[in-house]
Structure formats: structure tokens, C-alpha cells
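user: can you give me the structure for this one chain? C-alpha cells are fine.
assistant: on it. calling the predictor now.
[tool input]
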Amino acid sequence: MMWFYIVLAIAKLSSIAINLIDSSRGTDFPGKLALFLDKKFASKFKQVDFQKTIIVTGSNGKSTTTNLLYHIFTENGVKAASNLKGSNMLNGVATVFVKNTSLSGKPKADVFILEVDERSLPDVLASYPAEHVVVTNVMQDQVHRNGEPDLVYSIFKNSFNKSMVMYLNNDEPRSKSYESLGRETVYYGVEQNPASYVKDKPLDVTMPCPFCRHKIVFSFMNVSNMGRFECSHCGFKSEESSVSVKQANFDEGTFVIGSTEFSMPYTAPVMLYNYAASAAVAMRFGLSEPSIAKAVSSFVNVSGRMESLKYKDKTLNYIRMKQENPETLQGALDAIAQDKTEKVFVIGLCTLDERRPHWVPHYANTYYAYECDFKPLLASGVEKVIAFSEYVCYDIANRLLYDGADPDKLVVINSDEPKDVMKAIGESKSSTVYFITLMRVMDGFKAYIAQSA
């Protein structure tokens, strides 16, 4: 064990050095360095109580649920440690333990809350066998990396075991189907609400049953492929949720869990699942509904998706997204649709270069947009829609036209150049602009705006 203590000290020193240079960096370097020096480093924290260790994983909602849980616990006097900035693979998780243990490896936190990338779950569990596991959902996500959701589904299925308390999304079939794999199952879900809808168009599809592969039928959906469901063949279906969000009122920003009214600081429909999952875990750890509600009311998501920029007389509200699954895009569209004032909507879907085969010059995927509903946004008071992209601007424009975009209000820009897009924004009357594109593309716009100031 002496080598472990030496490596731990070196990793801690690297963390201190990085914080002195730039505190925004180093979210996974200390763990990466420690694992380079000792491949088995991550598994040597023998004093960690895994009965008080929580893993949050799934396709969507990991970061927000992790941040919300951390906030709930700390607001109620529980000392928590977490990877709040999203370094969610083994290096990042190891860094959490480097930073939140003593030189002898003794935990400084009462509870560890770990966001874990779905592909990294087996490696993390091998070193940190957490007894509490939250599954947000298993959806289409990062198709260039994960392919079909069945790949992630199988990884999860082979990783769970009978020592775990499983917190499962009762409204998402793949997540719920893990119910027999753990020691105990806690279901969470969201009741029908004003944002719920039904897929009933001829080309609408849902998903196959995880057990018999026949069609899953939803009586309603709260977000894509999450809602009250039943298999058309084997009878697999939603249960009564242990923790359920009900009476959601988006106009007033409230909902109810049990007998307690909660305020929702973020009103996108998908957030209801983050509230439900977090409340389910917090209640299992002994916190009361009123104390959870009080904490939720003051929640500010440190990994939040919205930031505002000023450009001349315009306010650009940029919604950060990875453009890797339809739920993320739909959540952004829903958030914009809640603003009923006149606005400009700018969307620039882009090529995805990460993990593409070396012989493919670009990887463009626009099918995510075809699984989303643009109609509420287009009906919310849009002066102009700007579709830009060097490669897929016309695909985006066609998708918008299919959902009823007014051709006279649609501007198509075959470019990723900020000056071209900002010129079109500057020619609009509305002072409010909503912007969706990749983070790396937005960096160019930020630089352009800074130079124009």
C-alpha cells in the first residue's frame, strides 16, 4: 500500500498545481496521472463506504441529476463530493477520490455522487462498487460512438448486480427492464401533464420491448419515448412509481411529489425526470419531502445549458448542446418555445468529427432533427428562422418546412462563418435571439462578438 500513498500524494500535488495555474482545468488529470503511475490505483480506496456512494448514469440527464443531488444533499447539511464538471470516465471519477480523501485515503465526504459515462460504467464499478445506481434512461445517443441503444443496454445489463439499490425510470422501457437485477428497486416517474403528448402519425415509431421485441405502446409521452407504456405482446408495462412528479404547472413553475409542492427552477418538461430521480435518492437517504423541496427551489445548474451574450442591440441566448441525441435537441426546442415574445431562432447543426473513421472526411447526422417536434417553437412568436451550416443547412431548412416554418421567414446560410450568420441576425428587428449549435462552433461566434465589441 505504500506505493498507493505515494501516488495519492503526487496526484494531490498535481491537483494543487493545476488549481494555481487555472482552476477551470484539471477535472480529470490527477486521476489520469495516478492511474498512469498505478493501474490499480482506483481500486485501493479501502476506507470508502460504498453504501453511501451513488452512481448516476444513462443517455440523458446525468449531469443535471448529479448536480441536483449534490445541491440537495449539501443544502441539507450532508457533506458531498462529486464530479460536477462532467469528467465522467474512470480518470474523472478517480480524481473525485484524489481530491476528497486525506493522504491516508480516508474520505472527507459523507456521500459520493458520481456521474458515470455509460460506456465507462463497467470500469468504474470494478473499482468503486457503488450500492446506489440511478439510471436516467437508455436512448439513442452519440450514434458515431454507441451505434444502437442496444449496445449501451447490454453494457448496463452485464454491469448491475444484486448488491445494488436501483433507481429506475418507470416511464422509460429499457431503464425499467433492469428491475430484477438489483437488490432493491425504487421507481421514479412523471404523471401526465400539460406538456404530455401522443405519437399517432403514420410515420411515428416508438421502440421494441426489451424482453420480447414487440412494439411498445405509449398512452402518452412526457418527452420522447418516456411516459406511460405497455408492451403490445408480453404485458411489460409501467408500474406505480415510488416517487412520482404530479400536478406539473409550467406557467406557475410548480409540481407535487407526495404531499409537498415543489418550485421548479427550470421548466423544460425533461427536467421533471431529473427532479423525480433526485427526490427518489434523497428520500431513500432519509431526507424529507419539504427539505428536498426547499433545496430544489434554489438549484442553479452549474452545468447549465443556457448562456447569454450581447451583440449590439441583440441578446443572444445560446443553448449549449452536443448534438448527439434527439432528447437533448428537443429539450432545447421546448425551452425556447416557452418564451412567447417575438424572437429570432438560429440553428446550425454540424458535422460530428469525434471518433469518425479515419477515411471519412465528415460525419453528418441529421436524423436527430427528424425525431423532434419544431411546431411549438415555430408557433411561439418567431420573426425569423436562420438555418446555417456548411454541410447540412438545407437539410435543416427542409426539416423546419416539414413542421410548418414560413418560407418567407426562413433564411438559409450555406456557411459556418460567424460574420455571415451575424449579418442576418443584425438585419432582424427582434432583440431576442435563441441560438443552437455545437459548442466548438459557438466558440468562433464568441470570438467574433468579442472582436466586434
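assistant: here you go. The chain has two domains: 2-297, 306-452. The mean pLDDT is 89.
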